[in-house]
Structure formats: C-alpha cells, structure tokens
Amino acid sequence: MRLLRQLTLMMALGVRLGPGATPLTAQDPPRDGSRNGSRDPSAYALNDSHFHLTNYVQEGLTLPAFLRMMGNTVGRVALFGIPLQQEWSYRVDGDHGPTYYLGSDSPLYYYSFTDAIIAMAYRALPPEERARFDPMITGFNPADMYAAAHIRRVLKTFPGVFTGIGEFSIHKEFVTAKVAGGTPSLTDPALDSILSVAGEAGLVVIMHSDVSVPFAKPGSAEASLNLPSAPAVPEYLAQMTALLERHPATTVIWAHTGLGRTVRPIGEHVKMLAALIEDPKLPNLYFDISWKVVADYVMTNEASLAATANLLNRYPDRFLFGTDALSPPDTASYFEVFHEYAPLWKRLTPEASEKVRVGNYIRLFDEGRRRVRAWERANLR
Question: What contacts 54, CB < 8 A, 6 or more positions away?
Fold first, then answer.
C-alpha cells in the first residue's frame, strides 16, 4: 500500500521512472537521514504559499496538528490567519453563530489580534519545526493610513518571526463590501504606505485583489457598477499595474491570479498574465494558483488546461502553488487542490513543475527572511 501511494504521487508530479532513476518521493525519508526542518527543502513534493491557520471566527488548527497533516509531503508553508472577524449579531442570526462570511448578512471587521495568535503559535514550536513556516502579518486595514505603523509595530513586538504580509484584500467579491468602515482601493495612499514599508523591510506581500467587477462580461450591463458595458480590459487592471510600478522594490504575489468566484477568466486572461510578466516595469510581480475556485477554472476543459500549462511552462519563475486551505478539518481536505491539479503537473516540464511546486517558494521566501532579519537588526535597537 505504501508503494502504491508513492507511485501515485510520482505519477501526479510527472516523475518518469527509468533505468538508474532514484527519485525521492514525498513519503521517503531524506537521503541524508535528516528530519523536520533540517531536511533538504527541495526534497518535498510541495511548498504551500497560501494557508490560513484560522477561519472567519478566529478558530482553527493548532500548529502541531497541522504539522501532522503536512507530514513529509509539504516542506514549508506561508502561514497566516484571517484578518477579518465575522460579526455575530443576535438580531440577524439568532442562536446560530455564523462561521463564514457567506453565512450571514452581518458585517466583517478587522481583527488585529490574529497576528499575535500566529506569532505565539509559531514561537511555541521547537526551532526545527519553526523552520518550516513563514508567518505573515495580516491584521491590518489596508484603507487605514495607520496600517504601516501596525506592520512596524508587529515586527518590533515579535522579532525573528514574520517573513511577509498578507493575505489581505483590496477588491474581493462579497467580502470587502461587508467590511465595516469602507472599501479599500488600489489608489488609496494607505495601500501605498503599506507596500512602501514592505519594500523597505523586505516583506513578501500576498495580496488578493479581483482584477474586475463580479459577473463582468464584454458587452453586457454591469449592474454592480451601473456601467453601460464591461470595459475592454478588466476594471482594476490599470490601477493594479500602476500600483506595482510605484513599488518596484516590493515583492508582490497576486493571489489567485486576480480571479474569484464571480470574477471569472473571461476571454484573454492567460494573455493578460503573460503581458504582465513580460512588462519590464513589473519584475517584482508573481502569481499564486491557490484556491479550489482557480483549480476548477483551470480544469474546466482541455483548452483551459492546455493554456495554463503553456503559460507556466513559458514563465516557470513567476508562479507559486498554494492551497488556500482555510483551517482544513482533515488531511484529505488540505490536499484537495494539490490533487485536483494532478493533470496540470503532468503537462509541465520537470523544471517548471519543480519551480511552481517548490523552488519559487524557497527563492522568494528565503530572500524575504534574509531581508526582514536584516531590517530588524538595523531598526530594533
């Protein structure tokens, strides 16, 4: 049975067995006999660039329980909570407290204590297990001019812990409109100040911002904005591009490639991503392919799968795998997105597959760790 599991995983990753081949699978012990954080990071099947330890009511897994889920399959994880708390209004929901933003008409509000929860859980681990996580600061309001001060304060309160900021949301269907206090914007000076401090400190940024309005279709009425027709390009693309150009020193991972439940890949989404990658003014831009919604789009049909595989094979340095798991209840749930992408892994070249699953994470987050620790040494006196 163990051998069957190994062969199944190797097939999913497109590993070819042949004479003299000595592949290292996710279930095998590392060749040097090391364990946990001391294991060669490239020996794992994947690194997870997008994981929520807690849910919208700040409940979830313990890190020891999550480490058991990761096992010898997942090497490192970008670790964060949820920056928003779902309000439980008795007038609206009665005795049934909502646990997800789609489960109530009550608003969401920013919950800054999430950063302390993540930091304390991380600090409680032994050093070899800490090495497998890159905690992220996310408990701030991106429309608040004081958000940058919060980020600096967290770094000073918990030195040696955080590698980046995010996932935080600017435009997110059904979410940002529910947040008490107003909707964030890509043109808000508060967001510029956040990306500036991230660039200064070397923090990796994971940002969710839908590339367009919900249900936008070329030539159709956009009821949500009362516009006569959908624009020729996605509604927020120009604003996003301008924002990134203003912060060339900041490494930004655009979550879900800008897609959402009702922000679908219309028309030329793959060509749009290629154009952004080829833009010489945007060398700091990366994308994650996390979330089951995105995996479903990729697996819709042969054409979408082929287009995605071609894109990743052309630009293997600019994409990262992530699960976007939200405090998963079991191991099967945690690995659902990874396994859904099995046909994609088979279409990628060995080099592209390794970079998207493992290598790009190591490159970006190792550099983030190095730069943030250097910033802390220079500023925390």
Answer: 60, 61, 81, 82, 114, 117, 327
At 198, is the pLDDT very low, low, confident or very high (cuts 50, 70, 90)? very high
CA proximity to 180, closest of 98, 82, 86: 86
Residue closest to 331 by CA, chosen among 78, 74, 144: 74
Q: From CA 42, how far away is CA 119, in angstroms rounded?
A: 26
- CA–CA gap between residue 343 and residue 329 (Å, rounded): 25
CB atoms within 10 A of CB 30: 14
Q: pLDDT tens for residues 66-124?
A: 999 999 999 999 999 988 877 676 767 778 777 666 667 677 878 999 999 999 999 99
Do residues 56 and 100 make contact, with C-beta atoms less than 8 angstroms apart?
A: yes
Output the CA torsion 181→139→177→102 (10° steps): -130
Residue 11: per-residue pLDDT: 44
Q: Report the alpha-carbon distance of residue 348 to residue 335 in Å, rounded.
A: 19
pLDDT (average), residues 153-164: 98
On whether the pTM is more than 0.90, the answer is no
Say how far apart CA 241 and CA 256 lie, in whole Å: 16
Give the per-residue pLDDT at 235: 83
> 256: left (phi > 0), else alpha (psi -120 to 50), else beta?
left
C-beta of residue 294 within 8 angstroms of C-beta of residue 341: no
pLDDT for 37 beyond 50: no
Residue 237 token pair: 């693309």
Domains of the chain by residue range: 51-379
Nearest alpha carbon to residue 294 among 210, 350, 351: 210
Of 299, 316, 309, the closest CA to residue 354 belongs to: 316
Q: Which amino acid is at 205?
A: V
Amino acid at 108: L
Respond yes or no on whether the N-terminal peptide bond of residue 200 is cis (omega within 30° of 0).
no
Q: Which CATH number fits domain 51-379: 3.20.20.140, 3.40.50.150, 2.60.40.10, 3.30.460.80?
A: 3.20.20.140
